[in-house]
């Protein structure tokens, strides 16, 4: 079984309606080019800043969800809708909604690990000033395979992905927006490591870099294959990354190098 994955590395601007139009344009283009699973970046409708999350936030089934659901249904594609600020009661979550090709919501992931860091000479960010953490692992079935979804800083916690792998995920999609300090240092390495350790396809989708916006995303959306190599990669500019996800190849790699079978669970 093979299928086509597309990652829409879109430019995110201050105007929410422009962001929704860009997402729609890129999803339509990806679908026209044969993509069957299409993913968007973290916080694709909102500038990535604590200042804006509440203002741009929407309850579940707000206008962004409605747009993604109807596009999925119209184009008959699975959409992993990056993430957006979700308003629930008085809280704000960083939430990714996924839709089946019938337009049904099949996944909802609230970012589990909040990005609260202070790197000397680099970046300081404290998501917990505005956001609340989720507490569930997110996986769903599609006609192709089980897909897991996590968001950005979640990627740094390998146990999460091992768990998804053991539960049958073959593709993990990570909407993410690394920055210009940790991006060059860790992005490529971390995405390849998650793919290699678990012998899965691991796809990370970032916004394009906007040197005029309040946050400079690293870009570099990529797909790493079960051998740990990139099989799709963007630079910092707006682009769609296409990759073939080949589940027979995944099985071949696992047969040739049976890492998952060689685990000694009784020891660790
Ligand atoms: O882990 C990192 O270095 C970046 C994480 C991040 O930007 C985020 O979680 O939004």
From TrEMBL:
Record keywords, A-Z: Hydrolase
Top-rank taxon: Bacteria
Keyword Hydrolase assigned: yes
Metal-binding keyword on record: no
Segments forming domain CN hydrolase: 3-247
Gene3D superfamilies per record: Carbon-nitrogen hydrolase
InterPro entries listed in its UniProt record: C-N_Hydrolase (IPR003010), C-N_Hydrolase_sf (IPR036526), Nit1/2_C-N_Hydrolase (IPR045254), UPF0012_CS (IPR001110)
Molecular function terms, GO-annotated: omega-amidase activity
GO biological process: asparagine metabolic process; glutamine metabolic process; oxaloacetate metabolic process
Pfam families in UniProt: CN_hydrolase (PF00795)
Ranges in coiled-coil conformation: none
PANTHER family found in the cross-reference section: NITRILASE-RELATED, OMEGA-AMIDASE NIT2
Recorded family membership: Belongs to the carbon-nitrogen hydrolase superfamily. NIT1/NIT2 family.
Protein name: Carbon-nitrogen hydrolase family protein
Species of the source: Sinanaerobacter chloroacetimidivorans
């Amino acid at each position: 079984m093979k299928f086509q994955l597309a990652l829409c590395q879109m430019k995110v601007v201050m105007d929410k309606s422009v962001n929704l139009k860009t997402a729609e344009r890129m999803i339509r283009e990806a679908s026209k080019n044969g993509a069957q699973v299409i993913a968007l970046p973290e916080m694709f409708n909102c500038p990535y800043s604590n200042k804006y999350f509440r203002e741009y936030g929407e309850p579940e089934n707000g206008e962004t969800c409605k747009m993604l659901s109807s596009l999925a249904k119209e184009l008959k594609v699975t959409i992993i809708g990056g993430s957006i600020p979700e308003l629930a009661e008085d809280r704000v979550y960083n939430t990714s909604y996924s839709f089946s090709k019938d337009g049904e919501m099949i996944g909802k992931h609230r970012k589990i690990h909040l990005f609260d860091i202070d790197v000397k000479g680099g970046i300081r960010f404290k998501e917990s000033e505005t956001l609340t953490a989720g507490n569930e692992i997110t996986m769903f079935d599609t006609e192709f395979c089980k897909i897991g979804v996590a968001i950005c800083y979640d990627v740094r916690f390998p146990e999460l992905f091992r768990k998804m792998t053991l539960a049958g995920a073959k593709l993990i999609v990570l909407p993410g927006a690394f920055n210009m300090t940790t991006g060059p240092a860790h992005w490529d390495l971390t995405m390849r490591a998650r793919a290699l350790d678990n012998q899965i396809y691991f796809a990370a989708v970032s916004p394009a870099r906007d040197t005029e916006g309040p946050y400079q995303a690293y870009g570099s959306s990529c797909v790493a294959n079960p051998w740990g190599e990139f099989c799709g990669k963007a630079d910092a500019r707006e682009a769609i990354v296409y990759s073939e996800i080949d589940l027979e190849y995944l099985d071949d790699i696992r047969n040739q190098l049976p890492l998952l079978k060689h685990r000694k669970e009784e020891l660790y």
